[in-house]
Write a structure and sequence with these properties.
By secondary structure, the chain is of the alpha+beta class. The protein is built from seven helices and 13 strands.
Length: 337
């Protein structure tokens, strides 16, 4: 009888500890008001007057390279080396706007380095960040325990040399088939809508990181993106960019819905010769895209950038563009709003 009593007490203690850990670990570090922040930092570097502009999208995989999500040791030197390579190449490219997915703000898995702030010091005075993963302790990879991510504060960032006027954080549909305990630790999939004042034009960016593991959910998210895009693309320059987690060669590929959009181009994308962005070591899939409305934006050049190597498990896409003078007339006719 005593054995049963002790066994019951042990089981109850284990149950209480498990529930307590679950509630603590799955709770946020931040207030929801900190999930979408626009900021401006002091910067003496003047923005050059130009007719052509560069925008880059990059899933940097929190700078873990090809070890992303793998249960392997990730020394601090790995992140430092990958950051150095990213900074060197970003300095050479000198893009006007950067859009990052899987960028860490304060995560144990990347040694609590604010990657957004470090990259911003390259001369990006304006920034908008949206947190899409905020957990006190993420028990993944599941084993060994020493490989757990721990505290994660991560998300999507837009860094700009031009003023950011406003930002909207839109949560996209979640996979309804995820078990509740899994979903409690899962990240939000977002559309980060950012308006940037570029050389007299209000440029709307719809920045995304879509569902990776469930195709039906991803298709619903892309349908939502199309409706967001429809609000803007007829009235001014609009770009949708980011990690869509959809290769055009997938069966019933969700990205095909984006290809169907009228008056819309896709940077460095041709179905007859697809340039892949994943994985960075041996690219076999195209997951990352920049779409733009051709009535207002004219593509000058575009490419998938392999010079970043394995700093991430993705490769970035770069678009050089002009504002369409046929639509606008001259820039001088615009005044700031």
């Amino acid at each position: 009888m005593k054995f049963l009593k002790y066994a019951f007490l042990v089981l109850m203690s284990f149950f209480v500890l498990t529930i307590g850990f679950y509630l603590w670990a799955s709770s946020p570090n931040l207030s929801p008001r900190d999930y979408a922040v626009v900021s401006e930092s002091p910067n003496d570097k003047a923005v050059r007057t130009r007719d052509e502009f560069r925008i880059l999208t990059y899933n940097i995989g929190y700078l873990s390279g090809m070890t992303n999500n793998l249960p392997v040791e990730k020394p601090r030197s790995l992140f430092e080396d990958n950051m150095a390579r990213v900074l060197e190449n970003l300095s050479l490219i000198d893009a006007d706007i950067l859009a990052f997915q899987e960028i860490d703000y304060d995560s144990d898995r990347s040694y609590n380095i604010d990657q957004h702030a470090v990259i911003g010091d390259l001369g990006y005075r304006y920034s908008a960040k949206t947190v899409n993963w905020d957990k006190r302790y993420v028990p993944f990879p599941y084993y060994p325990f020493s490989m757990h991510f721990g505290k994660v504060i991560s998300g999507q960032s837009v860094l700009s040399k031009y003023p950011i006027l406003e930002q909207e954080r839109i949560e996209l549909e979640r996979n309804q088939d995820n078990p509740f305990y899994y979903d409690s630790f899962y990240l939000d999939r977002l559309a980060q809508v950012v308006k940037v004042r570029v050389s007299g034009h209000n440029l709307v960016l719809i920045h995304v990181h879509l569902e990776a593991f469930d195709q039906a959910t991803r298709i619903h998210q892309i349908e939502k993106l199309r409706s967001i895009y429809a609000k803007y693309y007829k009235d001014g320059p609009t770009i949708i960019l980011g990690d869509f987690n959809s290769d055009p060669r997938y069966e019933n590929a969700g990205i095909a819905l984006m290809e169907e959009l009228i008056h819309t181009g896709s940077a460095a994308f041709d179905r007859s010769e697809i340039k892949n962005t994943y994985n960075s070591r041996e690219p076999t899939e195209r997951l990352d895209y920049i779409f733009y409305n051709t009535d207002y934006i004219k593509e000058v050049s575009a490419e998938v950038m392999d010079v970043f190597g394995e700093a991430s498990d993705h490769l970035p896409v770069l678009l050089t563009f002009k504002f369409n003078s046929n639509k606008y007339g001259t820039t001088s006719g615009h005044t700031d709003t």
